[in-house]
Amino acid sequence: MRDIETSEDLHELVSSFYSQAKTDEMLGPIFHQFVDDWEPHIQKVASFWEATLFSSGSYKGNPLALHLEVDKTVHHSLEQEHFNKWVDIWHQTTDTLFSGENAEKAKQRASNIANIMFIKIYQARM
Ligand code: HEM
Questions:
Q1: CB of 49 sitting under 6 A from ligand 1
Q2: What is the DSSP string of 9-60?
Q3: What CATH number is attached to the domain comprising 107?
Q4: More exposed terminus of the chain, fewer Cβ within 10 Å: N or C?
């Protein structure tokens, strides 16, 4: 199996991730509340990963601030189990499509970011 190497690979990974995540019982309803137009969203998240893994691309944004806002909008109901599920789907999707150093990095980074996000969300509620 090949490794993640290009922006097309990231588009494929993110697109495949969302085809699982948007039909997930726990995460699906949250995504549908915020995302109407999937293709621009997928492109944005793929460009976030391009910046994260390859320090390239055009991503500009503040995912942490955005997820604090998502949590507020859903009445502070983003819990550890949502993040665990997100990370599970990300790891599964990555392993289904890719293998190698970048694939490992993508999984590791996602776990780290998910942990930090949840801690920040939790702190913001206090
Ligand atoms: C409980 C888990 C999560 C949920 C329910 C969730 C939900 C969402 C939603 C609803 C949006 C769209 C918000 C909008 O456009 O108004 C979004 C955007 C995004 N999410 Fe998440 N997310 C989760 C975890 C994560 C994690 C762990 C990462 C990174 C590793 C991540 C990366 C992103 C990025 C990059 C965007 C786009 C940011 C931008 O527009 O600049 N998310 N997320």
A1: no
A2: HHHHHHHHHHHHHTT-TTTHHHHHHH-S-HHHHHHHHHHHHHHHHHS-S---
A3: 1.10.490.10
A4: C
